[in-house]
Amino acid sequence: MQIFNTKVGWKEEFIPQQPGFVRAYVCGPTVYDYCHIGHARTYINFDVLKRYMMASGLEFLHVQNFTDVDDKITARAVEAGLAPLALADRFIEEYFRDMDALNVKRATVYAKASDYIPKIVGITEDLLKKEAAYRSGNTVFFDVGRAGGFGELVKDIEGSVKDRLEKGTKRGPFDFVLWRQGGENEQAWESPLGRGRPGWHTECVAMAITNLGETLDIHWGGMDLIYPHHECEAAIAKALTGKTFVRYWLHNNFVLMTGKKMSKSTGRLVYIRDVLKRHSPEALRLFLLSKNYREQIEYSEERLAGAERSLESIMGGARAAMDWGRGPEMSDCVKEYSGMFFNALDDDLETGQTLALLERLSWEMTGGSKGKDFTGAAKIYDAAESILGIRLGR
RNA sequence: GCUAGGGUGGCUGAGCGGUUUAGGCGACGGGCUGCAGACCCGUUACACUGGGGUUCGAAUCCCUACCCUAGCUCCA
Question: Which pTM value belongs to this model?
Answer without folding.
Answer: 0.94
